[in-house]
UniProtKB/TrEMBL annotation:
The chain crosses the membrane at residues 38-56, 77-98, 110-127, 139-157, 177-195, 204-222, 251-274, 286-305, 311-329. It comes from the Bacteria. This is Membrane protein YkvI. The keyword Membrane applies. InterPro entries: YkvI-like. Keywords: Membrane, Transmembrane, Transmembrane helix. Signal peptide: none annotated.
Amino acid sequence: MWRAGFKWMFLIIGTTIGAGYASGRELWQFFGHESGLAILLFSIFFTISCIVIMLISRRRKSTHYLPVLREIVGERLAKFYDVIIFFYLYTTTAIMIAGSGATGQAFNFSKWWGIAVIILALFFLFIKGIDGLLSINQIILPLLIGGLLFILLLFTMDQELHLFSHIHEQRNWTAAFPFTALNLLSIIAVLGAIGDKIKTKQEIIIACVGSGVILGVISYIYNNSLIQIADEILLYEIPLFAILKDYPFEILIFMSIMLWFAIFTTSATGLLGIVSRIQDKMNKPFIWIVMITLITMIPFTLISFSTLINYLYPAYGILNLYVLTRLLLLPFSKDVYR
């Protein structure tokens, strides 16, 4: 039970902590000043939503997201959100690949080296199918979470920051809604693909509460750190590098590797959602669909990483507010607990 719960917890966190989140760009886009309450609400909304999605996925024994989506939004709107989710997964996976290029550029490498490395890594990962993704998540995610928390707490201590000094200033609380809604599309897609592998309700609770708490804590500390360097963020494609600029080169290298792994895990989970959906329509080998999908994404990497996040993420967040509303209301329905 515990082992399975942690396995799904790392899958959820790996889906959420991608290039946009780990780099700080996504958090700054939605939160910033006066956002403590917003982050607490995000943690609560996210936990409830994940529990509902996993319960539906388990009951339906789904292998792709469409059966889960139909139960959440209904038959009519499922067709609309099916297109939205597919386009979201496609564009955000392309954003992750562009993020790999941006990470390489931070060390004066051509972005095409970063793009080529991640495409090849994704291809070889999926030779083993979904088992390869689950195995690598359990290795990478503890390192990523530990590394990110370490550098953020180190920065907090070095700057003598007080984590709760602005607790009375919470005017940006509404940001919790679009930020949670944005992250739910990939969660529906990924958890919808593993419904036939979820065994018990206990592992669902462990996975969802654990991921909600961890993401809430990291988001709060990260956002608090970004507030201190608000004037410098515009100068950096990746805000995390503004935090790291005064630290030894070894720390920069370590966090850059961790950032790349965050990009990699989210690319992999996004690709899983895309490929599982396409495979339901086409009777083609899994790895063949992976290869074709990755090739078609290359042109999107010509758009800058920060531009993609600045325009696409807020739009997706607003479009999916209805999905969030449905997920928060479904716990009041007895059917979801069957």
